[in-house]
Write a structure and sequence with these properties.
The structure holds three protein chains of three kinds. Chain A is of the alpha/beta class. Chain A contains seven helices and 15 strands. Helix content of chain B is 31%, strand content 14%. The chains are: A alpha/beta, B alpha/beta, C alpha+beta.
């Protein structure tokens, strides 16, 4: 009898602040038992229910890629009781992990296609997982051109600065970073994500768009894609919902007859249009 | 007049008034009660057509406090084109009290509301009837003369009305239509009778602390934390109830006794000086918990300490929203 | 099929005998006189003549507050253990066919998909269900409209029919057969007894006053998500959640950690929750996918009569009528069905 509500135990290996105001941190977890790590097979886009035992549990997208071996990473924004607790964690503290949950980005189906990654703000974490996976030498040749459009309010909010700058130097990926308003010292794009999507005008031919961000960004960016001729089946979203069990049992995260924690969080626009507008 | 006749009269007059108000477009909608589909119920209804006025009824099972539908947390009567709708509301005394108190707390504008004041002759205690009848299905309940007649598949029982009336209704201060009613059915008394010596709570008051604890414990134990009491109460209009707050979490959400008792006691404190004694909380409880003694204790404290009765005067602030330099503070300070 | 007879006067004997090996749960009164399913200490506490319980018997295997796991925080480790009562051997005695069917729905739902709720599954495996047929369904019952029947036997292990001063006892499953065999003192039936049981079943079915074309209702629900009729139907609802509380098929739950900072021990528990709560879907960011009462009201109805059929080809309602009886504003599900059936044409293309 394996109780699906009991988490696997991990310890905090490192905890790194991602922005100036210090409310987003990336926490790296190492499984206490080797066999637990081996059993935790995930793909980009999935999430896990991580918990501070005694405080509570929350669903967080997995920021690390399965190609990064030895540990798993989560990028957590300080918003409520449990997330604040994570921010106070020290090296060696015990964190419970349940998962991997959700359907993840459809890495198999998007093989052989161009990938356009559109992210906004703090929601970039599972996109990091996807990009690292695609860029890994094992998988790079499975996918075609990769374009990344990533927008933030200002430059202090940009997550994963170091790795983004590394990617900018590569020639097998195109990185377009943008911030909402002009800023001294910022030499890259300026403008809302939707405007930059319009400017970059990614072609829908043999392509798939992976969109993740705040609701308003998703709405406007997707509208631009549709203008450019993208079909609903080509546009993938990762949704957020309030979750408790993460395994499709507590009933909370339903949109129509689908559960975001099991049938999602990744839905194509075509699928979303069939569901009630309650997300 | 016997209760049965009174009911028929009131019902007749409600329909006439509703018809007039709708025909003359004095209101856009009328909130009232309709007949329930199960014997011990009534159904709040909103009508906007003259043809529907015959759906409005009055009987002694109209226990919902209709003022609840006008609190800002439940915005239903705004039309994007017309703005706030003009609402007519069938108001028995406690509904009127609730409306007045909500207006004192600035939660609604009485100018948009046409209060149809009715003289209420008391609400039947559903749970007490069910207990009396036991596990036999009640197929029909009616008021005949001054009695309640309960019929089932193979039984019929007549029960005296005054024994099965809600305890709160027995000591009701506003049996006549509320003073601020725009239209009254029957006599609108200038000043409702506020004589009340709270003899019904004397029994609880005279208990020892241990006895009080036992009483409260056995009363509240079946609570399932469904919050029907909170949802039925017109005074519970907070956007985020203290129960649901999580920064910080004030107390547990479980149905363990400690959590249950804290919920009810804190909610009672929030009701101090505000509760209008409508009894909706007790009527809607699925587990049949009768919160009358809490309601009455709160009223007693507000009256004895501050000379205040909620929902009577549209101009006086309730004691928890105002202070007076003469307020007694014996629970905090030593006497000089 | 090997039916037996149990005299009502022997109930005490039955309970005492079975009680040696099993914890017996049956309908009994709580302190306020409500009928609930609770652990029986004395046979006299069992209610045999009852219409139906207030809180459905799902509360025995899926309690209002249930431990998911217990933990103890040690120096550099946390010890986690399963809840202690998982393997308790239980008998739930005297549940109505509608409630028995709800256990089946629970088993389906909790066992569906990649992750299975092993807690419920384990508890159910260690439970024997004694069902009892309804000879006098209530006016608010409508089990026959949702593919049920007042004498449906499929979902229990042993089925009883009240013949007046005695019960007809029929083993339905292997578990049921084994336990009835242990009660070797049960008397044999006569043909007259079996006939009477059949008659009672037929009479009960005929006495159902509510008949609804549920398939048609489901179809209309699937095609009318945004129909403005929902505003009218949900108008009087006060969002109290009593319907969800007493519903045998509702399974939504909240998860919280409870810990004692002194002993460093604690437990993670799940509690019944209701989709009617205004903060049910409220996210920490402040965004709420279902901020309006209409949306929450619609979600409950569609969950049972639309999403469930779409996902599992089952109706998520057992027709017990508890929600109809308890609703404080008399929002009657049958009235809702009648209103829905009046929608003549398809309003829009969206199908859920």
């Amino acid at each position: 009898m394996s109780n699906p509500y009991i988490p696997l135990l991990t310890t905090v290996k490192s905890i790194v602040s991602e922005n100036k105001v210090n409310d987003i941190k990336t926490i790296e977890l190492k499984f206490k038992k080797e066999e637990d790590y081996k059993s935790f097979n995930y793909i980009p886009g999935q999430f896990a229910e991580i918990s501070l035992i005694g405080k509570g549990e929350c669903p967080i997208g997995i920021a690390s890629s399965p190609t990064e071996e030895g540990s798993i990473k989560f990028t957590i924004k300080k918003m409520g009781e449990v997330t604040s607790g994570f921010h106070k964690c020290g090296i060696g503290d015990i964190v419970g992990v349940r998962g991997p949950c959700g359907n993840g980005w459809p890495m198999e189906e998007i093989k052989g296609k161009n990938i356009v990654v559109i992210g906004g703000g703090f929601a970039f974490s599972t996109l990091r997982s996807l990009i690292l996976y695609v860029l890994d030498e094992k998988y790079r040749s499975d996918y075609k051109d990769v374009t990344v459009i990533y927008g933030n309010r200002d430059s202090s909010e940009v997550l994963y600065r170091e790795i983004l700058e590394e990617w900018e130097k590569r020639d097998d990926i195109k990185i377009v970073l943008t911030i909402d308003r002009e800023e001294e010292g910022w030499t890259r794009e300026v403008g809302f994500v939707a405007a930059i999507v319009k400017k970059v005008a990614p072609s829908p031919d043999n392509a798939v768009a992976v969109v993740c961000g705040p609701p308003i960004m998703i709405k406007t960016a997707v509208a631009e894609l549709v203008n450019l001729g993208w079909k609903d089946e080509q546009i993938l979203n990762s949704l957020e919902m309030r979750m408790k069990c993460g395994i499709g049992k507590c009933g909370r995260c339903n949109i129509g007859n689908k559960f975001v924690c099991v049938d999602g969080p990744v839905f194509s626009l075509a699928e979303l249009k069939k569901l009630p507008n309650e997300y | 007049m016997v209760i049965e006749e009174e009911n028929q009269n009131i019902e007749q007059l409600i329909r006439e008034l509703a018809r007039k108000l709708l025909e003359e477009k004095q209101v856009d909608v009328i909130i009232g009660y309709a007949k329930g589909t199960v014997p011990l119920s009534s159904a709040p209804i909103v009508i906007d057509k003259v043809e529907d006025v015959d759906k409005l009824i009055w009987n002694n099972l109209c226990y919902i406090n209709l003022a609840k539908y006008l609190v800002p947390r439940i915005p239903q009567f705004t039309d994007p084109e017309k703005g706030d709708l003009k609402v007519g509301i069938v108001s028995k005394g406690c509904v009127g009290r609730a409306l007045i108190h909500l207006s004192v707390e600035q939660q609604l504008d009485l100018n948009n509301i046409k209060i149809i004041g009715i003289p209420c002759n008391g609400i039947i205690n559903r749970k007490k009837i069910e207990k009396e009848i036991g596990e036999r299905e009640i197929l029909e309940l009616s008021v005949s003369g001054d009695n309640i007649v309960v019929k089932g598949r193979d039984f019929e029982q007549t029960l005296p009305f005054d024994e099965y009336e809600n305890e709160l209704c027995k000591v009701c201060k506003v049996k006549s239509p509320p003073t601020i009613a725009d239209i009254c059915i029957g006599e609108c008394l200038e000043n409702p009778v506020i004589m009340d010596d709270f003899t019904d709570v004397a029994d609880f008051d005279s208990k020892t602390p241990d006895e009080k604890w036992e009483y409260v414990k056995s009363l509240l134990e079946p609570c399932t934390r469904c919050y029907a009491c909170r949802e039925a109460c017109p005074m519970c209009y907070c956007n985020l109830c203290f129960v649901d707050q999580n920064k910080p979490v004030w107390f547990g959400k479980t149905t363990e006794l400690s959590d249950i008792i804290i919920f009810h006691l804190i909610r009672a404190l929030h009701m101090a000086g505000r509760c209008v004694a409508c009894g909706a909380c007790s009527s809607v409880c699925p587990m049949g918990i009768d919160l009358t003694f809490i309601t009455r204790s709160l009223e007693k404290i507000a009256k004895e300490r501050y000379g205040f009765t909620s929902g009577i005067d549209p101009k006086t602030l309730p004691p928890m929203m105002a202070f007076d330099m003469d307020d007694e503070q014996e629970f905090m300070l030593e006497e000089d | 099929m090997g039916e037996k007879l149990l005299n009502k006067s022997d109930i005490g004997k039955l309970i005492n005998e079975l009680g040696k090996e099993y914890s017996i749960y049956a309908a009994t009164n709580d302190k306020q006189g409500n009928i609930i399913f609770d652990k029986i200490e004395k046979a006299e506490d069992i209610l045999l003549d009852y219409l139906n319980s207030k809180i459905p018997p799902k509360s025995v295997l899926f309690p209002k507050v249930e431990t998911l796991f217990e933990y103890e925080i040690k120096d550099d480790d946390i010890e986690i253990t399963n809840p202690k009562d998982l393997y308790e051997k239980r008998i739930i005695f005297g549940i109505r066919p509608c409630d028995a069917y709800s256990f089946q729905l629970f088993e389906n739902f909790f066992g569906y998909g990649q992750f299975k709720d092993e807690l419920f599954k384990t508890k159910k495996e260690n439970t024997i269900l004694f069902g009892i047929g309804c000879n006098l369904p209530r006016q608010t019952c409508f089990c026959t409209s949702v593919e049920g029947h007042p004498h449906k036997k499929d979902d229990v292990d042993v089925f009883l029919v009240d013949l007046g001063d005695k019960y007809l006892v029929e083993s339905i499953s292997e578990k049921g057969k084994n336990i009835v065999q242990k009660l070797s003192w049960l008397s044999n039936t006569t043909e007259a007894d079996i006939q009477k049981a059949k008659e009672l079943s037929k009479l009960a079915e005929e006495s159902m006053s509510t008949k609804i074309d549920i398939k048609k209702v489901i179809k209309i629900f699937q095609e009318n998500f945004d129909n403005p009729i929902w505003d009218d139907i949900s108008m009087s609802c006060i969002g109290c959640g009593s319907c969800t509380l007493l519903c045998p098929t509702c399974h939504c739950f909240d998860v919280i950690d409870e810990n004692d900072p002194m002993s460093k021990k604690g437990r993670r528990i799940r509690l019944w929750d209701t989709c009617q709560s205004s903060i049910y879907t409220l996210e920490t960011s402040g965004h709420n996918p279902r901020p309006n009462k209409v949306q929450r009201f619609r979600n409950r109805i569609l969950h049972k009569f639309c999403y469930y059929p779409t996902n599992y080809d089952l109706i998520g309602c057992v027709g017990c009528g508890r929600c109809i009886n308890i609703c404080p504003v008399n929002n009657d599900l049958r009235n809702i069905f009648n209103s829905i059936l009046k929608i003549e044409k398809k309003e829009e293309v969206k199908v859920v």
